[in-house]
Amino acid sequence: MRRLLVTAAIAAALFAAAGCSGERDGAAAPGPSGGPSAGVPSSGAGTPGASPGGPAGAPVVDTSPAGGNGKEVCADATKAASSSVQTFVSELGKSLQAAGTGDTAGAQAAQRKAEAALQTWGNAMREQSARATDERLKGVLAEIATEVGAMKATVESVDENKLQQLQQRLDALCPS
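^ thats the sequence. predicted structure below, dont judge the formating
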């Protein structure tokens, strides 16, 4: 799933550079660090497998894989997101291409399909969040659903840093 989210963010950045470079002045791609998730508090703090705490008073972050039905939920979330992410990236590209050639109807049709892909992706993450028995996995999937729900079929709506931070947390819970 990491590749899918990173692909969506990278593709959005590439489409921005190729199709609308003048429209995104001031928008920057994520840096190499991308905002590590180590400082993100987890609801699993204090559970077995938790890593030692940081400086005095810092929350303990559980970096162990998701428990309960985590493997199944991770696999289903990855499968569900795959199609939606690919459709979103493809349709966003088509929308930008159509807009670049003055094809307003084509751009609008592609945008509608991209919006539908986002809705499908967000719904799938909410469904998997509801199924998850691991509270940390449930929380990350719900946050992904919220972030995807805030996105629109525009390059500017993709918050690469936020998606990357969420993905890092998900990767810790859903190791390959």
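The two ends are 9 Å apart (CA to CA).
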